[in-house]
């Protein structure tokens, strides 16, 4: 049976139906060396996320054991407790909707790995080991862990079951298009070749980072730069979660920074240095990401592999998305082409203005003529056009009288508007003239048999278009007067009039 109208309406109103997934980053308070309590804290936030209709939650690196426990990583009792905590957490989260990414130290063979464990509805979907292990300054990870760089095509046994294990895993919902994600861990994003780059080229639309990352002055900006640049370069979403309160602070401190980026746009960020648990989420537009990749041949070219085999294994899972209406949680810009950060507004305006000036100068230099003709209405658009033209003259070393400004009053032009136009031209020291378009407009309206020509107060679109059309027509047919340098015909090249930019240079 087909969908009913009500079902279609509900599907349309559901964000899932448009390729959005609700992505969360979580920072539970850490209990050092206590996998049971850490598992409980993770489960508590996972339940909150499920109540908020979240689809995926990223927890910090080594969140089941804590990060700063040094040689406790090599103690058998701790590692056994961590493995049991993974199994218990999988079972306890069976009825929760979100996919969970949790950090854990896990043994395989004679090696210990720093891992991201992926859980969904009671199942352990797979385990991704950390590739790049920091071993400089305050970091000693190679003392405890093995790199997962060469680990592919493998499995690991957890709770008596073999699950996929390796750095070659991409996870994909079998029942929800575009829900495809990749996991990397902390230092991986700081490397010159982050594993998530290959994950994105392999098809992942959401890149997840489980991090511990202690805090030092200025490091927060570095994290933002890395996450923003990676989401931009990879045409992806990037979810980052770092450890927070509860980690050992004998030598180091942690701030619990979490953030979600979508193709360079910051969608959500946690409160840093909070003493309580943190859970922040946003609706990520995975459909937008997929379509943007289709429009970008460079991305496709980078993804081409000469070998026939796929570099990644796809781990499929049933997500069971909820297609009910749930609203949209993401920042919506009131002015899409204006930066959200006030500190960037001046910089963007500076660049936009000088781009216009540079373009006008190049046009003036490459087109015959020695005058710029601008229509001055007294409104914002023509005012801006005049400022651009004046700046261009200044940079070219030309007098501003090079600019020929024309105000063309029509039927609705008031004294204030007309006065503003003249004051503007005088203030900039340009050559100013006035051409009244009303006689020509009356004649045209009469020729059209428009009711206004017979005295009827009809101010429809045709009435407006006659006046709007006359202004560029007059400018293009204009001949130089005694104030210009010669009597040669005007050459229309760059005419500017209130929102219809074409500028006119004339000789």
UniProtKB/TrEMBL annotation:
PROSITE patterns: CN_HYDROLASE (PS50263). GO terms for molecular function: ATP binding; glutaminase activity; NAD+ synthase (glutamine-hydrolyzing) activity. Pfam families: CN_hydrolase, NAD_synthase. Its EC number is 6.3.5.1. It catalyses: deamido-NAD(+) + L-glutamine + ATP + H2O = L-glutamate + AMP + diphosphate + NAD(+) + H(+). Keywords: ATP-binding, Ligase, NAD, Nucleotide-binding. One of its GO terms (cellular component) is cytoplasm. It is an enzyme of class 6 (ligase). One of its GO terms (biological process) is NAD+ biosynthetic process. Residues 21-286 form the CN hydrolase domain. Pathway: Cofactor biosynthesis; NAD(+) biosynthesis; NAD(+) from deamido-NAD(+) (L-Gln route): step 1/1. In the C-terminal section; belongs to the NAD synthetase family. This is Glutamine-dependent NAD(+) synthetase. The lineage of its organism: Bacteria, Pseudomonadati, Pseudomonadota, Alphaproteobacteria, Hyphomicrobiales.
């Amino acid at each position: 049976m087909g969908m009913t109208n009500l079902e279609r309406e509900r599907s349309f109103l559901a964000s899932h139906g448009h390729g959005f997934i609700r992505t969360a980053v979580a920072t539970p308070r850490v209990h050092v060396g206590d996998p049971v309590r850490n598992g409980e804290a993770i489960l508590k936030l996972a339940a909150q996320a499920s109540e908020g209709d979240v689809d995926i939650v990223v927890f910090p690196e080594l969140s089941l054991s804590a990060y700063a426990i040094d040689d406790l990583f090599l103690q058998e009792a701790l590692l056994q407790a961590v493995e049991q905590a993974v199994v218990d957490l999988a079972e306890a989260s069976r009825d929760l909707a979100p996919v969970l990414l949790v950090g854990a130290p896990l043994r395989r063979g004679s090696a210990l790995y720093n891992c991201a464990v992926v859980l969904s509805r009671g199942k352990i979907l797979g385990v991704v080991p950390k590739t790049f292990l920091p071993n400089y300054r305050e970091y000693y990870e190679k003392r405890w862990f093995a790199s997962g760089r060469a680990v592919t095509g493998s499995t690991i046994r957890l709770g008596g079951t073999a699950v996929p294990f390796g750095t070659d895993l991409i996870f994909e919902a079998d029942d929800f298009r575009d829900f495809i994600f990749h996991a990397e861990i902390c230092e991986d994003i700081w490397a010159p070749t982050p594993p998530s780059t290959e994950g994105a080229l392999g098809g992942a639309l959401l890149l997840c980072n489980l991090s511990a990352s202690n805090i030092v002055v200025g490091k927060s900006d570095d994290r933002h730069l890395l996450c923003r640049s990676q989401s931009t370069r990879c045409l992806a979403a990037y979810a980052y979660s770092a450890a927070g309160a509860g980690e050992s602070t004998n030598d180091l401190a942690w701030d619990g920074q979490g953030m979600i980026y979508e193709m360079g746009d910051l969608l959500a960020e946690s409160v840093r240095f909070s003493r309580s648990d943190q859970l922040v989420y946003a609706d990520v537009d995975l459909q937008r990401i997929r379509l943007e990749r289709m429009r970008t041949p460079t991305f496709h070219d980078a993804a081409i592999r000469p070998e026939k085999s796929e570099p990644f294994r796809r781990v499929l899972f049933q997500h069971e998305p909820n297609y009910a209406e749930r609203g949209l949680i993401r920042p919506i810009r009131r002015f899409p082409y204006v930066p959200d950060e006030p500190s960037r507004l001046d910089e963007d305006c500076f660049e936009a203005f000088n781009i216009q000036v540079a373009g006008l100068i190049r046009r003036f230099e490459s087109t015959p003529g020695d005058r710029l003709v601008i229509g001055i209405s007294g409104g914002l658009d023509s005012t801006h056009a005049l400022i651009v033209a004046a700046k261009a003259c200044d940079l070219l070393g030309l007098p501003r009288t090079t600019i020929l400004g024309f105000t063309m009053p029509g039927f609705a032009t008031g004294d204030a508007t007309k006065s503003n136009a003249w004051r503007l031209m005088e203030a900039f020291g340009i050559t100013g003239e006035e051409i009244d378009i009303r006689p020509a407009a009356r004649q045209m309206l009469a020729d059209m048999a428009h009711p206004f020509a017979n005295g009827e107060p009809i101010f429809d679109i045709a009435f407006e278009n006659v006046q709007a059309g006359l202004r560029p027509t007059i400018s293009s047919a204009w001949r130089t007067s005694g104030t210009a340098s010669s009597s040669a015909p005007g050459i229309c090249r760059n005419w500017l009039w209130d929102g219809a930019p074409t500028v006119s240079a004339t000789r």
